[in-house]
Structures are given as C-alpha cells and as structure tokens.
Amino acid sequence: MSGSGRAPRFYFSLRSPYSWLAYRELLERHPDVAGAVEWRPFFEPDGTSERLLAELGGSFPYTAMSRAKHLYVLQDVRRLTAARGIAFRWPVDRDPVWEVPHLAYLRALRGGLGPQFVAAAYRARWEQGRDICDRTVIAGIGAELGLDPAELAGASDDPELRRQGALLLKDICDDGVFGVPFFVQGFNRFWGLDRLPDFVAHLRARAGGDGALPPPAAPAVGLGARAVDDGHAGGCG
Questions:
Q1: Where is the DSBA-like thioredoxin domain (predicted)?
Q2: Which domain holds residue 134?
Q3: Average pLDDT in the 22-46 region?
C-alpha cells in the first residue's frame, strides 16, 4: 500500500456518477486540492486487462450489483443532482469496454490534455447522456481537443497504453481501492462523495500553517464489460 511519503491520490471513474459529482466539487470548491493530488483512473478490466493484471499479481475486486442497489443509485443520483441544481442525463451503455475511455484519458494525458479530456468525457456522459465506450464518441472528443481522433479512439488497442492501464489496475489493488470516488493519503483512506470534505480537511491539517497544498512532484496521474458493483458510496459512505 501507499507509504506516507507518496502524493495523495484521487481514484476516479468516468463511469461513476459519484465520481463525476466528486470531480465537480473538487474543481469548484477545492481547486488547490484538485491540483495537489494524483488523478488515477479506476475502470473495470476487460479480458485482456484482466490477464495483464493477473500477470502482475493483482486481482480486480468484482462484486455484482443487485437490482435493489441499482434502483437506489438511480434515485440517489437524481436526489444529489437536484440538491446541487445540476442538470444531467442518464447514459445508456451498450456492451461497454471501459478501457476505451480510460485508456483514451492516458493518451490525452500524454498529449498534455488529460484534465481537458476528463471534462469533455464527463460532459458527454453525464450532461449529454452519450456512450463514452463508443469509439466514435471518443474520436469526437479528440477532434474537439485537437488530438488525433483515431489515436484517441484506438487507445485501447495500443500495447503500451494497455501496459500502463494494467499498472494502474495493480495500484488499485495495492491501495486497497474497492469503489469510487476513493481518496488516499499515506495509509489513510476515504471512500465516497460524502468523505471528500474529510479528505480535504485531512490534507489541510497535514499541510499546517495556512493549509496551502503544494502540487504533486509528478504529473497528476501515475502510470500505472460486465455488470459490476462500482462500490458507490455516494452520500452513505
């Protein structure tokens, strides 16, 4: 697991509505924290990524989502967005392969546009209700950002990005991440949208003085389709 000397981490998923809401709150309310943490994508592996992860000695934490929990998430997210005055649209995922958007993020990061890609992908999924596992959607985001559309849409076919994705999945295992959003600082873990204020307070207390947070020494992410329970804590932790 992460030692106390490592930069704090924010594990996010483009799939998760709770990650989307945490992302918004980080940028709107705590921009210094957003700039001080490493951003780590969390995604459910397909067969290829699962094999690569197993070769690294990891195993992704799968849990099937019950119908009752699925219905609860639908209700809960509608309640949370209404309380925040946020308009959103539920996307429809058809045979999702989550490497398509999440490895595209790594490709965008390589081009210096990682944060812009996250913003565009979240906007496409949660504001426009689009399928971000559709390569044409990812290609459109590439064109919007000035990145090569074919390279972005085909990121999951890139062996090097696949390797980086497997390393990130191994970090998920090593950091004890079991759902999103998930925040890590040293040996301290905070799970769920409602734990974001506690994570922020923890980082500020560690910073001392005026609570100002330094940016990470490295770029804001490290290298490193099935029905599953994303471990959404949402407001219930």
A1: 10-203
A2: 9-207
A3: 95
